Amino acid sequence: MKGISPRTQATLERLRNRDHGRVSEAGRTKLLLHDEVRPLSVVLFHGLSASPTQFVRFAHALHEHGHNVIVPRLPRHGHEDRLSTALAHLTADELRQLARESVELAHGVGERTVVGGFSLGGLLATWIAEHFAVERAVAIAPFFGISWVPNRFMGSFSRLMLALPNQFQWWDPIARERQMPAHGYPRYATHAVAQSYLLAREVMRDATGGIAAKKLIFVTNAREAAVNNRAVRRLEMRLRDQSAERLQHVVLTDVPFSHDIIEPLRHPQIADRVFPTILALLEGTA
């Protein structure tokens, strides 16, 4: 790739080499790069138990529009064995490290950087917005708590989950291992949820310092089924003291009761409906 520094090349190789032999083809990091540094680079973070394939439609569209696109595999994700127990060992430190390396790579292949993410990926996009001067961060249905657990209890709930042995729970107790799409895990690990919330608490705590990003955009579904929209609004209120002019909150009011609004292999009609809006937010044309 022309015009990139040795440091960027090293980061690129490190990201590629994270995909060991147990990772499936669909689960591998997606690098849609032109042969040169472009005006805009985009990083997209998938959700808990999913894989980079979750964002492949966005990645191809952004690449076709001339951008360099990076869709990293989150740690412990994407294994060929969909019943892998690797997710039980996910840590907040691993998520931070991946976020740092992804932004570093994006800075090396683009003059300006945009980050986007869904659910756990939306949490990572928000964490980056607090720490890095990216052009835009788009947090789609970001995870800052569980919809049915009042936010004031999430800290105690997470500590309890970490104190107890990890458990794997089916996303769909009826379909179990038959749940689609095949590129993701059909189960989640309770310890992975708790570790994700540790990072969410850090983001909430640091919100009083404002954001480093030029713009942070929250995208929430008014009929959210899984994550806690009230926690997103509380975070937004804390950020407004320092960064009101750089915040935007897009509430989707015409989407059914659901959480996974971007996965075309699970809810194709919903994914088709929100795709143009989110693509425009990522590119800054909305």
User: Major sheet: order of its strands?
Assistant: 1-3-2-4-5-8-9
Helix and strand string, N-terminal first? Answer: HEEHEHEHEHEEHEHEH
Q: Using the alpha-carbon principal axes, give the shape.
A: globular
Give the CATH architecture.
3-Layer(aba) Sandwich
- The strand count comes to 9
* Mean pLDDT value: 95
> Which percent band covers the strand fraction?
15-25%
Structural class: alpha/beta
Major sheet size, sense and barrel closure: 7 strands, mixed
Distance between the termini: 31 Å
Give Rg in angstroms: 18 Å
Which stretches are poorly predicted, pLDDT < 50 over at least 5 residues? none
Structure summary:
The chain has a 7-stranded mixed sheet, with helices on both faces. Strand 4 (110-118), helix 4 and strand 5 form a beta-alpha-beta unit.
What does this structure look like?
The protein has 286 residues and is of the alpha/beta class. It has a single domain (6-19, 28-283), classed as Rossmann fold (3-Layer(aba) Sandwich). 39% of the residues lie in helices and 16% in strands. The protein has helices at 6-17, 56-64, 92-109, 120-131, 151-163, 190-206, 229-243, 268-283, and strands spanning 30-32, 38-45, 68-71, 110-118, 136-140, 168-170, 187-189, 216-221, 247-252. It has a seven-stranded mixed β-sheet, sandwiched between helices. The protein has a two-stranded antiparallel ribbon with strand order 6-7. Strand 4, helix 4 (120-131) and strand 5 (136-140) form a beta-alpha-beta unit. Helix 4 (120-131) packs parallel to helix 6. The mean pLDDT is 95.
